[in-house]
Amino acid sequence: MEGGCALTGSPSTMELLEAHQVARFLPAGPLFRRLELTLASGTRVGVAGANGSGKSTLLRLLAGLEAPDEGRVARAPGVRLAYLPQTSEAPPGGSAWSAAAAGLRAVREAEARLREEERRLARGEPREAALADALADFERLGGYRAESELREVLAALGFREPDRDRPVAGLSGGERRRLALAAVLSGSPDVLLLDEPTNHLDLAARAWLGERLASWRGALVLVSHDRALLDRATDATLFLGGGAAELRRGGYQRARRAREQSLHALRRRDAAREKEARRLRAMTAALAARGNRGAARRRRSADRRLAALAGLEADIEAKLAPSRAGRMQLDLAGREGRGVLLEATALRRSGVLDVPALRLRAGQHVALLGPNGSGKSTLLALLAGTLPSDDPRAELRSRPGLRLASVGQLDRGLAQGRGVLGQLATVAPEGRARQLLAEAGLAADRWERPPEELSGGERARAGLALLEAREADLLLLDEPGNDLDLPAIEALERALLATPAAVVLATHDRRLAERVAHEVWTIADGTVRRHPDVAAFLAGAPGQAVTRATGAQAPEEGAAAVDEPGAAPNAPVRAGEAPGPGPADGAARSLESLEDEALAVEALLEDPLKLAGREVERLRARRRSLTDSLSLAYDARCEPAAPRYRVREAGLAIVAERTADGLLVLATEPAAAARSVDALVRLLAAGADPRLDPSLALAPWARVTRLGTVAHVALDEPSACCLLPWARAGLADGAARLAFTLLGVTALQLFTPHALPGSRLQDAGSGWWTLSRSGFERAEGLPVELPAGPRRSRRRSGGA
Asked: Structural domain tally of the chain?
């Protein structure tokens, strides 16, 4: 909901923190207004939005470090809160263990109170109740398990046993950041506020953090650009942007899809409003030309309607504005090709990496994963030729005319000391360079600045604009998502899905790797290994060594290449196509990926004037195909619909569904009724024999066909068993009841060579059994209307 948002736990949970009608204003406008948020035990909220939308400000307000411009933030008495700022690091004094153990201060204070109560009780003071309270408080905070859990946290964050005695002053910034995270997690606070906790965490550590936060017992507010973490750790998402706050249930992906669907409906409503406004404006112009009194009245009515539509336009625009905040457009349109782009042999850096050979083909998308310091950046630099190999036999062979673009973590492909606009103007016309920087979301007053004067996010956007201008055939990307907000990361994902260029992507972003890559390379002990997907890597599968013999023409086992891009399990779509993880729809693709592609196609079709006519038609055809695939996916996920009709005859559970010419009737157990009827309908529609289906092989069924006012019943009995006479009669009576009740027939006939003892149907001889409507109604005890006969006149007697 816009402007106000609330979230509470179950009725039994305790409210820990409340933000009521909170607002924060900047000179350029409000960050958010009338924001309401109630946190209870077990509440886990993810905060999403573009850079500058107020995510970090909100956390500082909740932590009590800043006061809101309007409203209030209240914390329940005794509630302990822990806050991890975006740039926090452990203080430089002491050892790594002492820095992380700073989070155990509350546990140690509780232990000191417990020891004091024990001493007072030993002196004979009546302290039993106080001792019990102190012990409960100590155990709630972790008790004797606190230090062992801290050791587990440090191990998961990459600190081995010998590392715990290292002085903090000698650690890198990333290591000090991880120590600060360990200290916050070890304190077991009631309310946990985390601002970008995945900074400097590798993929495995992020997965561990997601599992830990998913089981957090207190309240959690998490700001992160890691979609996998948000999906795993949160159950509600707060969207900030354009001065508004909107809260939706579910993790980020689920909440984003629901939000996009609402926005799409709103855009359609806006288009209908604009169409009606154009009609009314044309009508008022025509009425003004007439000048008579009737035309004037109609014109005033149209003007009132136009004023109402203007108010509706302002309301719709206010709701759509937050969705446009931070939007970035990116098109990595390289040249489409085939075959080998780059071959490398004898790539080696002593103590870091040793790759005998590998090969990259056109359209190949590789995710390069591994822990920090494993050599991912080194491999990319070796492939780009910017770092020499230690092996004198090293060789890089590329296809003639290959356009290669390399984007590093820090420089983003930009040179220092020169304005970013001037750097783009060397590879594209200045007008095109300005357009690319604007579409990348870089403010115009930053275009003349050199990269070293830009923030991390601004430098990342400028680097992506330069990458787009170069139109490369091979992209070597080192953590391109660093410093980007969620809308920008999703724009980068869509661009990588659509580009025909080959991509080697080093990343710790699980969702980005899963959606973009056709295969996964990892670096362990200096060796590059290949995994089928990200899940296999996280599960600890050893993988296959990536090797390619020099001059080899055929793919070898474990080779770092696929035959052609289209042969990859998730082949890339061509330039201009809507994003999608593969060419096949239906069960082979997840429901989530189909929904994401459908939203992407709708976004492309929002403004068809930007597309060529053929492209619009292709996208509309793709939308129709996705609609069909989504219907199948929803059907597969949902439980089968219950049969429409159900009766019980002679102890048999009988269900039925309508057909084009009558009914299908099935005698079955209630638990299997829905699936059995559905299978029966599908098999008969396909012309198959239902008796060959295992689920129907022992199920007697009947087809009721209406011929005029007469229903014909055909019984089909199981061939693998003997149907008892009473069950046969029950199926016939059930079919008759449904036929007379639903089809409105006047008579029914059935042929069977077997007897129907106790049935309502009458034996007509030669195997035929019949029943009229009046006979059915009489057997049911219903009042039967007698046929009209000659009326007898009643004479009055003249007298008595």
From this structure: 3
